[in-house]
Design a protein that fits this description.
The protein contains one helix and two strands; from the N terminus they run H-E-E. It is mainly alpha-helical. The longest helix has 17 residues. It is globular, with a radius of gyration of 16 Å.
């Protein structure tokens, strides 16, 4: 495991949802950006779907079936030393 950066608090110790109320401030002068859809390699497609379904089942992600102003462009990574798929 990599060393923690100095002066940083490690908030996340495991997967899940943060408890309590979270307040985020957004600079309204900066317009939102929606990036184009990324192609998913065929070899990663099923593991990616399984991971997304798992995160939806845990309540970490919420599936939506309509356009939304909140989007996240994801990338996936699965290396030779990693058993699990990593989303970033």
């Amino acid at each position: 495991m990599a060393a923690k950066p100095p002066n940083k608090i490690h908030v996340f110790t495991e997967e899940g949802k943060l408890e309590g109320y979270l307040h985020l401030e957004v600079d309204e002068s900066i317009p939102p950006v929606v990036l184009p859809v990324r192609k998913v390699p065929l070899a990663v497609k099923e593991p990616l779907k399984a991971e997304l379904d798992r995160l939806v089942g845990m309540g970490v992600l919420k599936k939506v079936d309509r356009p939304t102003s909140w989007t996240l462009s994801i990338g996936s990574c699965k290396g030779a030393k990693r058993k699990n798929l990593s989303l970033h």
